[in-house]
């Protein structure tokens, strides 16, 4: 980790294995998302929290090329908030309305009002099984940390504390981070109590990251829970789109759709949602894709 980008994820054992924590510093990757999408402060907080939580979910994946997608649709003016992580904790994401602005009603950015709470958090894990794992919970508040806590508790049956924080000034992301604390099966009553009593300390995670960064945050937040760091992982914002992938997606549209596109538009532009890269296709490019789609249809 260099000084400019201190992002990382720690897996930590607590109370001699009766609980575990995942702690992340995500300032760099949230700043990258803000730059790519030109996010407003509220959108930075909403997408930043979601990217931070999804990177932690990504760090729980085991196999090569596995991925996890978290999407939040709460009916609020920000629209959909979506983030994806692979098992290397490379994350990417977007919001429907990156320019969202709402008046503040308290000291914190009104993320819950922007997201809304009339909807669901959906988590899809693609682990190369026949079917992906899909978990879904109703939103608690649209503040995102509480919604992920509900997801872990209800959908994965693991009682969890989740704290997510993004501190954003007009110019940049000052700090961002997250913490998940989960009880392991068989945790003693005493262990449960010590964790519940610490919950208040976990709330200001962006303040803690700004002050102490990842390594200092372990002792700052978890010292009384006998933390034992098991693993340090890198994490970053990275989009893995490519012209080949976009071509494959166009071919899946099918011959009819591609034919219509050629007749009506004579060209196509495809923008990547995650990094805003633009892929342009000429009429000849589209005809080549149409030939591939036709060949594929014939094989069926
Ligand atoms: Zn992309």
CATH topology of the largest domain: Hsp33 domain
| CATH architecture classification name of the largest domain | 3-Layer(bab) Sandwich
Taken in chain order, the helices and strands follow as EEHHEEEHEEHEEHHEEHHEEH
Strand element count: 13
Uncertain residue segments: none
What do you see in this structure?
- The chain is of the alpha+beta class and 300 residues long.
- The protein folds into 2 domains: 8-237, 3-Layer(bab) Sandwich (Hsp33 domain), CATH 3.55.30; 243-299, HSP33 redox switch-like (CBS domain Like).
- Helix content is 37%, strand content 28%.
- It contains 9 helices and 13 strands.
- The chain has helices at residues 27-37, 41-58, 111-115, 145-155, 189-198, 205-222, 243-253, 255-265, 283-299, and strands at 8-14, 19-25, 67-73, 80-86, 90-95, 120-126, 133-138, 160-168, 173-183, 228-233, 236-237, 268-271, 278-281.
- The strands form 3 sheets. It has a 6-stranded mixed sheet, covered by helices on one side. The chain has a 5-stranded antiparallel sheet with strand order 8-9-2-1-10, sandwiched between helices. A two-stranded antiparallel ribbon has the order 12-13.
- α7 packs across α8 and α7 (243-253) crosses α9.
- The model has no long low-confidence stretch (mean pLDDT 94).
- Bound molecules: zinc ion.
- Zinc ion binds next to loops.
